[in-house]
Amino acid sequence: MELRKDPITRSWVIAADGAELSADDAGPCRFCPGSGRATQVVGSEPALAGGGAAWAARALVHPAPLYRIEGDPQRAGIGLYDAMRTVGAHEVLVENPQHERQLWQAADAEIAQFLKLVAHRIQDLKRDPRFKYVTVFKNHGAVAGQEFAHPTSQLTATTFVPRRVLYELRSCREYFAQKERCVFCDILAQEERQAARVVERRGDYLACCPYASRVSYETWLLPRVHESSFEAAVGRRESLGDLAALLRRTLRRILGVSAAFHLVLHTVPNTGSKSKVLDYWRSIEEDYHWHIEILPIVPGRSKSYTFKETYFTEVTPETAAERLRAVAVE
């Protein structure tokens, strides 16, 4: 298994044979308390009072990791091509000790514990200068590539910044250089003023359908105040109730229109491992804005969006926001 870089798109791709990516998932659920099948625990958040479990959320090494923590990337040129070892981290973030208790079914306090786990794992992995970016994502539903029945998300720490994030970083830097303002903050101000694509506002957080949505019912969660780092923001807040509630309610709305979705957190790269050639570091604390992207998978022509550069949605963001607002969430 190795990482290979596409010289045209500059995307890193993992090349591996299927056997390398297989995990033995027979037997009792490895993520339930007391199963005896859990892999190495690398992080944990304590259970709430009266929770009945030893932990509320915890992180484990993935049973068949794409990236392994040991060693050096050993990046090398092969003619015009670049390749390197899959050095990094790949973890399973167990959202709840209860096998049937999904995020949208959990109490806000439980979701807050999971969000703290996410923040703590990102902070811990960013202490390693080899890792340039930490991605947290959730695939729900068979067509979304869900791996485990137990409520889980996943985390990867990589020695490169993913291409989609690079696009964002460069655009944010260019916008800030021209206007000395964060483009996300300007988007938030306009969306709140127009209100046509706003799904819900809760405290310091907003859920909205992006103006140029890639898929029908695509929804983003953003802080309404400028914050570049999710993990730093979570660490500063005494209460995560509003964010936890908005995430729970938004996922319920999404499940009202689709049985499957992708969720990904975008936060700043590892500022302790600055690139010597990429020009997005000078104002990154001011120009970047963390956010959560949720992309439902809905029947129709838009379902193949993963393979497109020009996207097509059968529902406009304005109509999508109106329909999502109408979904019962209590």
From the structure above, extract its key features.
HIT family, subunit A, 330 residues, 7 helices, alpha+beta, 2 domains
Q: Name the structural class.
A: alpha+beta
The radius of gyration is 20 Å
Number of domains: 2
Fraction in helix: 25-40%
Mean pLDDT: 89
Runs in which pLDDT lies below 50 for 5 or more consecutive residues are: 302-306
- Could you name the CATH topology of the largest domain? HIT family, subunit A
Strand content: 15-25%
CATH class designation of the largest domain: Alpha Beta
Terminus-to-terminus distance: 45 Å
Question: For the report, how would you describe the main beta sheet?
Answer: 10 strands, antiparallel
Q: Can you tell me the CATH superfamily of the largest domain? A: HIT-like
Query: Globular, elongated, flat, extended or rod-shaped: what is the shape?
Result: globular
Q: Which CATH architecture of the largest domain is right? A: 2-Layer Sandwich
Sheet with the most strands: spatial strand order: 3-4-7-9-8-13-14-12-11-10
Number of helices: 7
| Structure summary, number of beta strands | 14
User: What string gives the helices and strands in order?
Assistant: EEEEEEEHEEHHEEEHHEHEH
What does this structure look like?
The chain is an alpha+beta fold. The protein folds into two domains: 2-158, HIT family, subunit A (2-Layer Sandwich); 173-326, HIT-like (HIT family, subunit A, 2-Layer Sandwich), CATH 3.30.428.10. The chain contains seven helices and 14 strands. It has helices spanning 108-125, 163-179, 183-194, 230-236, 241-255, 284-287, 317-326; strands at residues 2-5, 12-15, 41-46, 55-61, 76-78, 81-84, 88-94, 133-140, 152-158, 198-202, 205-208, 219-223, 261-266, 291-296. The strands form two sheets. Strands 3-4-7-9-8-13-14-12-11-10 form a ten-stranded antiparallel beta sheet, with helices on both faces. The chain has a four-stranded antiparallel beta sheet with strand order 2-1-6-5, with no helix packed on it. The longest helix has 18 residues, at 108-125. The chain is globular. The N and C termini lie far apart (45 Å).
